[in-house]
Design a protein that fits this description.
2 copies of one chain form a homodimer.
Chain A: E1 16-28, E2 32-38, E3 43-49, H1 55-59, E4 69-78, E5 86-97, H2 111-116, H3 118-121, H4 125-147, E6 151-152, E7 158-159, E8 171-174, E9 177-181, H5 186-196, E10 198-206, E11 219-228, H6 232-253, H7 255-260, H8 266-269, E12 277-279, H9 280-289, H10 302-309, E13 316-322, E14 332-333, E15 336-347, E16 352-359, H11 364-373, H12 382-389, E17 395-401, H13 402-410
Helix pairs in contact in A: 4-6, 4-13
Chain lengths: 430, 430
Amino acid sequence: MEHIYISDIAAYEGQEVTLHGWVYNIRSIGKVWFMIFRDGTGMIQGVVVKSEVTPEIFELGSKLSQESSVTISGTVRQEKRSIGGYELGIKSIKVHQLATDYPITPKEHGTAFLMDHRHLWLRSKLQHAIIRVRHQVIKASRDFFDNNGFTLVDTPILTANACEGTSNLFNVDYFDTVAYLTQSGQLYSEASIGAHGKVYCFGPTFRAEKSKTRRHLTEFWMVEPEIAYCDLDENMDWAEKFISYVVGWCLEHCKTELEILERDTGMLEKVVPPFPRVTYDQAVQILKDNGVDFTYGDDFGGADETIISSQYDRPVMVHRWPAEAKAFYMKRDEKNPDLALGVDVLAPEGYGEIIGGGQREDDHDTLVERILHHDLPMKPFQWYLDLRKYGTVPHSGFGMGIERCVTWITGIKHIRETIPFPRTIYRLEP
Amino acid sequence: MEHIYISDIAAYEGQEVTLHGWVYNIRSIGKVWFMIFRDGTGMIQGVVVKSEVTPEIFELGSKLSQESSVTISGTVRQEKRSIGGYELGIKSIKVHQLATDYPITPKEHGTAFLMDHRHLWLRSKLQHAIIRVRHQVIKASRDFFDNNGFTLVDTPILTANACEGTSNLFNVDYFDTVAYLTQSGQLYSEASIGAHGKVYCFGPTFRAEKSKTRRHLTEFWMVEPEIAYCDLDENMDWAEKFISYVVGWCLEHCKTELEILERDTGMLEKVVPPFPRVTYDQAVQILKDNGVDFTYGDDFGGADETIISSQYDRPVMVHRWPAEAKAFYMKRDEKNPDLALGVDVLAPEGYGEIIGGGQREDDHDTLVERILHHDLPMKPFQWYLDLRKYGTVPHSGFGMGIERCVTWITGIKHIRETIPFPRTIYRLEP
């Protein structure tokens, strides 16, 4: 099945090639007809001239339907007015299947209908572009950590204990016991740094959240670096370097996709270090200055995040949070023990939190105290406490939600389009 | 916290540097003592000479214990006899924590004990090396597909239907219904090729297998490419190119680790295309020639695989299997419909199957027939059947188990050491 891909077409100008793919669109003007053809790597216009092909080939112009699978052969020509800058002078067409009544047509469809047909909707131009950006976001994330001396240490999906309460956890029947689907690899990565210094994990995480907002999925992917001998400031250095790398990579490698998505890339181009760093207290002041009736100690809601982030032209890092509201493992600020050394990174343009992280408590006895204070069971944390007994070190890390990041970079409205097969409270199929 | 890593030490010869890490070993000879020190990226010997440091620093030689966390500063010297070729003339030491009674000592420990202490065992030299190889196997896998025009299209972990029977599936309480943990992303990837042509998915997969063999885990990672317009032969081309790339990458980038693991790399160096391709029938003949009492139609056991693979100096691809024993979605051989166009790749040296794959049935009506024949419910397959209605194409793919591949490349005995936190029927912790 020797053939080439549309993404490589420029190298074949003037040559005869074969392409495998699907019909996107057909348009006829008498003795010539045009086919927009796609092969998964791009689109190209094919031109069929009556005098240049057999009658059987020419007649396909009135038979071929959207999404029919075909192999086409012909000569590559430069044609600046055509999609992608090239066109194919078609000489032969082999039909694999004529598709009849493809359900997704150029007319508008409702979201439920499109989601029910996600297995086909993925073929649409915008959805294709979003998944391509997702691919590059993930590639850039992995490359960043690989190139900066981090070791990938995968953390388990199935875990034995509901360490932080069971409310948002999915239960799994695990032989004669119960397991839980992971919400984060962090605790395990804190073990891995003892072996590898700088590590990251990258995998699916789960939240049995009943939220139906456009920012939530029950299954989503996270990349989580964790770094030995790293304090909150250095952690923020890593976060801003990381995000800037990912955005920069996408600007360079997703030009076509961002154009298709009509993303205004102006704001993305500003994403370079240093990012503004404000304390939680300062962020609260911003809200008050903007007339928001905000209760000190609360977490920020979506609207609050939008107000805070709109003060800046790049992501803003909010650090030093009221400790009571934060997880038991967060280290307290030496200068003010009411504050935890956590950091949230808020994307610009109202896209909300894309990173959460912080410095971890590294003292054994303090951690025991916190576990008791949070009324958590001690036994499941024995291994975690071991890490504070045998060569504990200051350490920090963070997690970035891939889908939130893709939502922001693509500039789309709803997170569900950033993952190929989204899972929400009411959706497990297809 | 400005400091350098041992992996970069060569660039600092003659300079004064600071290293963060842990004590691996201490040895004293009167007025000099030596510390083997590790920081996650490597090991280095530090030398403390009584006349060159303060009394407090020198006294640490009798206080510092295995796994104590310390920051050391001193001058980098070339020293060919030392581990890694360099040593550090230590001038100062900052102790973060003295570790007392670190449970894993140089003496022999039982497997259960080590697995219970997996969070610490990961720090040991061999385990560190195995996880580094795993990192490179995963990196090479992703790079291979990225560099060959594949798009990463993640497939869901939570699925609605027990498509191929429920016996090996884990059940998840999903709000008011039941979900299942994925066993493979294949069916979804078959949808993704309609959008992207060549795709791969890469994630954790689950089998509720009660096997306790050294080849089985309940949670393991798989990389699964799927290719539109690809037949079995081309699929085998991809498989052999892929494996060769991964092995070649590891030979180049895991020299130190393979040395630590005492892996004889001679056999790995032979892993280059083309791989031998034998039919199932030919493989059965090999077994018979070797005196095995084998029933035609059965799957090969571990011992059978070892006999077959030992005939060759590189991985062997066994194709065209008795169809009845294979999955419903496998395409039949036109020349002999009793055979399915599947392929298993067996690693050399008795490491067994590392890849399973094949060409998929692309005809709608044939697939409906097979689903009925296998007594499977039709409704959950509606979306999958849609793929055969709207532009079906010949297509193929395969899956490689990461842990099996790492077991082979590292040359270790038990698969459980190839994943940071293994899950088996009796193990969910740490």
